[in-house]
Amino acid sequence: MLTPVDFDEAPFLVIWEVTRSCGLACRHCRAEAIDLRHPDELTLDEGKALLDDIVRMGTPIVVLTGGDPLQREDLELLIAYGKQIGLRMATIPAATPRLTRDRVTSLRDVELNQMALSLDGCTAQKHDDFRRVEGSFEKTMEAAAWARELGVPLQINTVLGEWNYDDFDALAELVQSLGIVFWEVFFLVPTGRGSELQGCSAEQFENLFGRLHQLSQDVSFVVKVTEAPHYRRFVSQQQNGDETAGGKKQSSTHPGGHHGHGHGGALTVTRQGVNAGKGFCFVDHVGEVHPSGFLPIITDNVRATSIIDTYRQSPIFKELRNPDLLKGRCGQCEFRMNCGGSRARAFALTGDYLAEDPCCSYIPEGSL
Ligand code: SF4
Ligand code: SF4
């Protein structure tokens, strides 16, 4: 178990987009990734300096994302360096021909803590249609088998929205067959190419929360929900009864207990209320620092200012960590300290990162 992190001092995890280059063309891609690498990507030495700062800040986990991180030949060097200085390192390769058994072996050899693969459709056709490259599903299944064979802890990432809402049960069944340690379920934030897609309605969120909560009690892997902090409100309501602190809930609820955290996986989750800029920080391929990859506001660049100073001192980060600045229902909500709504979704749908999350059905007392 990791020591709790003071979110005013450091994020629980930093996601670093090591490149924006990618051979896929997914319909929801926040990065609007293209095949070519950017000439100004952070170099190996700049990346090591960034990892040094992340350790100094007190952050325990770094995820190397993309684009496709496998486009960088020095990916293993970055992972090895992070491990050497005490970080837990994960990465999210894209399912393209670059993802080979040899490459998974080399990730294993530098003791990668966790490898995440994306799976968004319950059939090859649905997945490939979403990722817009034929054979992506098959490659994902192949790579999952290599991870199992080579002993690399495997995570599956799934994006949920209106288009695959009805497939949730089939997706969950498929995911359970893959021998994973961690299922990260992302709720669509309509940004980048994803702004063309329809996310879940508030009622669909509640329904999926119930199913995810039930699943988390039935399986041995971690079920983590991303870009839906009101899942924490949902779980809290389940634990305390449906009428929490006098508030009303519009949609149906499901019975349940604790969110499933305990298992022997390589990474871990925190019970603290992580949100954009609050326990979380994103560094893009050219070093720009954002509160989240789904909240495309640039606060500074690691080439100009240490990530430590940006995270602790940037007015945007400080605002995002202050729940008393939240507006609308989120500002009046007794769950705002631990939930606060998706700041990225509020920004994507309203242009104001402090606005209420429009995809929460909860009505706090006094806001009617
Ligand atoms: S794999 Fe990731 S980076 Fe590549 S196109 Fe898909 S969403 Fe974008
Ligand atoms: S109203 Fe806002 S803070 Fe309250 S539970 Fe919903 S999203 Fe969270």
Short summary:
The protein has 368 residues and is of the alpha/beta class.
Write structural notes for this entry.
The chain is α/β, with parallel strands linked by helices and 368 residues long. Strand 6, helix 7 (202-218) and strand 7 (222-226) form a beta-alpha-beta unit. The model is unreliable at 243-265 (pLDDT under 50). The chain has one domain (13-308): Aldolase class I (TIM Barrel), CATH 3.20.20.70. It is globular and about 60 Å long. It is built from 12 helices and 12 strands. The protein has a 10-stranded mixed beta sheet with strand order 7-6-5-4-3-2-1-9-10-11. Strands 8-12 form a two-stranded antiparallel sheet. Helix content is 32%, strand content 14%. Bound molecules: iron/sulfur cluster (2 copies). One iron/sulfur cluster (SF4) binds next to loops.
Write the layout of secondary structure elements.
Layout: E1 13-17, H1 44-57, E2 61-65, H2 75-84, E3 88-91, H3 101-109, E4 114-118, H4 124-131, H5 136-150, E5 154-160, H6 168-176, E6 182-187, H7 202-218, E7 222-226, H8 230-240, E8 248-249, E9 280-283, E10 288-290, E11 300-301, H9 307-313, H10 315-320, H11 328-332, H12 343-350, E12 362-363
The protein binds iron/sulfur cluster (2 copies).
